[in-house]
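Trying the structure run again after the queue cleared.
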Amino acid sequence: MKIVTVRQMRELEQASVRAGTSLDTLMENAGAAIAEALRDRLPAPTSGSALVLVGPGHNGSDGLVAARHLAARGVPVSAYLLTTRPALDEKRDLAVAAGVEIIHAFEDSGRSKLASKSRGASVIIDAVLGTGRVRPIEAPLSDLLAVVRENSRAPIVAVDIPTGFAADTGHMDPNGLSASEILVLGRPKIGFFLDPTGTPWRCLDIGIPDGLDERITTELMSSASVAAVLPARPPRSNKGTYGRALIVAGSESYVGAAYLAGAAAGRAGAGLVTLALPDTIYPLIASRLSEATFIPLVERGRNAIDSGFAAVQVTDASRVATGMLIGPGLGQTQAAVEFVRAVLLDRREGPRLVLDADCLNALAGVDDWPGRVRGPAILTPHPGEMARLRGSTVPDVERDRVHSAQAAAELWGHIVVLKGACTVVAHPDGRTAISPWVNPGMATGGTGDVLAGMIAGFLTQHMDPFEAAMLGVYAHGLAGELARRSFGEVAMVAGDLLETLPQALRQLSE
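Done. Tokens:
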């Protein structure tokens, strides 16, 4: 499913008109779809009333069409017009003919009707301001919205976007109206993914003809799109069929990172997993991860990899690998930094790469690293690592996560996986895929190591790098959602994802 800016949505609507679907038809379709989507809020005509908050533009017209359809089903509906509308208003007149009670704000001087209707409604439909809003919300509209906030007990369902929400930036006006649920019209708006709140939403089909959005390069990951790129598992296969993953990870301070990444690569389906890790921690991991093979890396002292010898060990092992992950838990000692640079910089041969965590921190100190790392590699930074790579700040990265990832991918010539709520996967050619998952339970140490291992496991199976990154991100989020259901957001730990990942992949394959 494509994700759009306000401008792109308008262009889609204009293209629909040129293709023979009028704006009025789109509006009628939207109103009917809204009414249908509200069946779960109003399961029977006698179960409650609906209050539709109507604004001046197309968003208000969508609300009036929805009010008409609800009234036709026998639902008591009141439409409160918070602003003036055109004198000739066909949608309002049709709503009146269908039995909708119309209340004008200018006739409700004490706002008592608005307060009463807000208290008595079973559902409130926010159709006040849509994507065309450009100015801050001020009085008298801000005062009317405050009455709704103070008196409403019912869920507030927003039409397309909540009133006050900036569809291109994700910013919410302090005088806006927060929603319990959002009924998105046509295509999701990019602002939902720039500052995700976790508010549930559904995208409604309003009749935009197929194929008009082909040039839009930003899409929302879905089970269907991700399942389509799952690696095949032919019956006549062996472990060599699914590639060899080389995981370079771990240090005395971060033993678990190597285990989590290696185990995740195996769970993702890699045929063989080899862990190259400091000799000091090798016995600790080998006793837990019996499925992997190991390369104990030479050290020149406690917690100090010998960058020269260890780099040769990794280079030799990489000759038979089909995918290599480097970075989880390596630490930021001078020895680790030298080791990473010796392995990666100016090497023109070897397996495809996933660069994570301390590997990215080591590269951040090299001005021309993007051109010296063979690619396109898959980079998996969190916002702090992204800021170091860009020479900026975390707030700069988080201000527009999608554009931050896209701009970095284009500049560096590598695939960027910007982790966080609604993780962004950006390709240098402009393709962008955004994860739908928002899960506070994932905000715990080690989940990034699992993700990096999963992506490496998929990449090892000869997948297209962008698709491997997308599959890893989506399956990781789905495993996290399954873990949240089992353990709750507070009790979740990274190891739980290793337990739920098989179920997540089975769901996708089915």
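The longest strand covers residues 272-278. Worth checking whether this holds up in the mutant runs.
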